[in-house]
Amino acid sequence: YLIEKIDKLNTKLISECDRQDIIY
Question: Cα angle at 12 between 16 and 4, to 5 degrees?
């Protein structure tokens, strides 16, 4: 359960980074 939560958090962080990359 914890691992799944961390995975989702990491995915969210990566998604945000991808968006920033697109913006920049």
Answer: 165
DSSP tag of 24: -
Helices (H), the chain: 2-23
Spatial CA neighbour of 8 closest among 20, 22, 16: 16
Tell how far CA 6 is from the center of its chain: 10
Per-residue pLDDT of the chain (24 residues; tens, 9 = 90+): 688 888 888 788 777 767 666 655
Q: Give pTM, 2 decimals.
A: 0.40
